[in-house]
Design a protein that fits this description.
Helix content: 10-25%
Distance between the termini: 35 Å
Oligomer: single chain
Number of helices: 10
Number of domains: 3
CATH architecture of the largest domain: 4-Layer Sandwich
CATH class of the largest domain: Alpha Beta
């Protein structure tokens, strides 16, 4: 979030545009030129024009783009894109209020994460001195150590890529891999360029901190795991579990074994249909088990927030964690295939706990927004080493960009790419906040991902406030009628933005490639003066400390990216997106008052 202030004239136009995706051949350069021409001339009788770039300035997935593969080009790909992006904005440099970071430029921040004491982090967020998880090749100890330094340099040449079920990595030829030749051999290092294509080896996918454990009974650990996955919190220190009758006996036996009193209630569910489908037989009776009093208070103390793992889980001994994980799987009903389902937040935490206790755990988004964790345990007190009997199948790929390295006292790091952790040495990432670099070169304030802009007059009096974000959510409706579909999309736009800020008269997002405007709505109301009924209409100003959501202007800033082009297919075509209008928005302000937020459709 960035807070910005801009002084402007009483009469002005504010252009809100984004999602140019320059670098893709589907990007409309003709449309961009139309924007530049309009901003450098009069628009509806006013030449005081300003602009906000909503992000996604260029297409990051363009390594094979012919414009950046000419022999005369010596800069790495990110710098070449950044240079072009700067030049495209030179004609409107003095008119830009800010530029937001988009989703595509951020691809250069890297997909590799490092495991720090506070969780998984992208390299860009890692600081020197921060403690990260390492493995000492001499002592075989897994522990947290400080980052001694970070290095960065430009790489223009081959990289080595490995993509398989257990590991994902992209490294330079000189990058050292940590491996073993057999289960009981000594760990050693080898450069990626020296690894044979089918060379058998073992890579470390989980360490083991070898903790002495925590002062909890087996029953308390087990009940806590069940509660996280399948429990609920009640009133007055009470906790409960709801299970099928065939499963309820496990929890009852467990509570009886640790001496925690409980009450059980059985309810017959007279359900004959589910989603319109007739059931062949009635479902099992449902048993609700409630714990209260000191036992309930104890359980809530062990698990203060069931949406996150308690801190003590990371300090369990190996045997205690095995007990916890087995109970977690039973509560999650995942014991058969060792696959655990849940939110990304708690599965991230569970993966870290597995990594600290010698359990291989791979995180996967199997469909948008839905996550699962594959786990596998091996009885080795020193960690989990996975065998690649047929080799890593490392392949050379061309790469032009920046690479990074971090050093630790042990010379190793646990990293994760595409949800797959692995121990490595001096790992390398692509990196660069190119949006900020563009802003610095143009001398334009960097807007981060979201910005609130206060627009003032030349006399410093408040005119209005503006909320802008690149956004990450799509806007779509599946209604058959076009009028209803358009109304639904505007309602979705309003719903996504209205709670983000209460004092902004204008709220605009990008990303969705939709050209939408949702205008303020007024409603009829009735009053009386003691003698007669009178009518009125709701109305609000544009400078109040709180502006009612119905009184604001909402917009989606469109895009410049075409859907089709003969001879090629972009991600929108592959994703079966529908055609969308190309263009941008213009906020028209006259005599300090907002007159309209208008869509401008590109004339192509």
């Amino acid at each position: 979030m960035q807070l910005l202030t801009k002084a402007v004239e009483a009469n002005h136009n504010l252009f809100l545009f984004g999602d140019l995706h320059d670098g893709s051949v589907l990007s409309s350069q003709k449309g961009w030129q139309q924007l530049l021409n309009m901003m450098n001339s009069e628009y509806k009788g006013c030449s005081n024009n300003y602009g906000i770039d909503m992000g996604d300035m260029f297409e990051a997935i363009m390594v094979d783009d012919p414009r950046f593969s000419e022999e005369k080009l010596t800069e790495p790909l990110p710098l070449a894109q950044m240079k072009r992006t700067i030049e495209l904005r030179r004609p409107i440099q003095d008119k830009l209020i800010t530029i937001l970071m988009g989703n595509h430029e951020r691809c250069f921040d890297g997909r590799t994460e490092i495991l720090s004491e506070t969780g998984w982090k992208l390299f860009k967020d890692l600081k020197v001195g921060e403690r990260v998880l390492t493995f000492n090749l001499q002592t075989r100890a897994t522990k947290y150590e400080p980052v001694l330094e970070k290095q960065v340099y430009l790489h223009d040449g081959d990289m080595y890529r490995c993509e398989n079920r257990g590991v994902s990595m992209l490294v330079t030829p000189e990058h050292n891999l940590v491996f073993k030749t057999s289960q009981y051999s000594t760990p050693q290092k080898i450069m990626a360029r020296d690894v044979g294509f089918s060379q058998p080896m073992r890579l470390m996918l989980a360490g083991n901190i070898q903790s002495s454990g925590v002062d909890l009974t087996q029953g308390e650990i087990t009940v806590s795991a069940w509660y996280i996955t399948d429990g609920h919190k009640g009133r007055y220190n009470s906790c409960g579990f709801t299970q099928r009758k065939s499963n309820a006996g496990r929890i009852k036996s467990l509570l009886s074994a640790i001496g925690w009193p409980y009450k059980a209630y059985t309810r017959q569910r007279n359900i004959t249909q589910i989603c319109g489908e007739q059931l062949k037989k009635l479902p099992e009776p449902e048993v609700r088990i409630m714990i209260s009093g000191e036992a309930g208070k104890r359980l809530q103390g062990l698990v203060p927030d069931k949406h996150h793992l308690p801190e003590w889980v990371y300090r369990l001994s190996t045997s205690q964690f095995q007990l916890f994980l087995q109970a977690y799987m039973k509560g999650d009903r995942s014991i058969c295939n060792k696959t655990i389902y849940g939110t990304k937040e708690i599965l991230d935490e569970l993966q870290i706990a597995c990594l600290l206790h010698g359990v291989k755990a791979t995180l996967n988004e199997y469909r948008p927004g839905d996550w699962r964790l594959y786990t596998r345990y091996h009885a080795n007190q020193r960690g989990y080493w996975m065998s690649f009997a047929n080799g890593l199948n490392l392949r050379k790929v061309p790469y032009r960009g920046m690479v990074y390295s971090a050093s630790t006292p042990s010379g190793t790091l646990f990293v994760r790419r595409d949800g797959k952790p692995v121990l490595t040495s001096n790992s390398l990432w692509r990196f660069g906040n190119l949006t900020k670099e563009v802003c610095d070169n143009l001398d334009v304030p960097y807007g981060t991902y979201t910005a609130k802009v206060t627009i003032r007059g030349r006399n410093n009096r408040l005119m209005y406030k503006l909320f802008v974000t690149h956004g990450s959510k799509t806007i779509r409706s599946y209604a058959d009628d076009p009028k209803r579909r358009y109304a639904n999309e505007k309602l979705t736009l309003k719903r996504q933005l209205k709670f983000k800020a209460g004092d902004c008269a204008v709220m605009v997002k990008g990303h969705a490639h939709k050209l939408l405007v949702c205008e303020p709505e007024t409603e009829l109301y009735l009053t009386d003066d003691g003698k007669a009924i009178q009518q009125g209409y709701t109305s609000w100003g544009q400078r109040e400390p709180y502006i009612h959501p119905d009184a604001r202007w909402y917009g989606c800033s469109g895009s410049f990216l075409r859907l089709y082009l003969p001879g090629m297919s972009g991600y929108a075509e592959i994703g079966e997106y529908d055609p969308m209008e190309l263009g941008f928005l213009v906020l028209r302000v006259r005599d300090r008052q907002i007159q309209a937020l208008e869509p401008v459709r590109l004339n192509l």
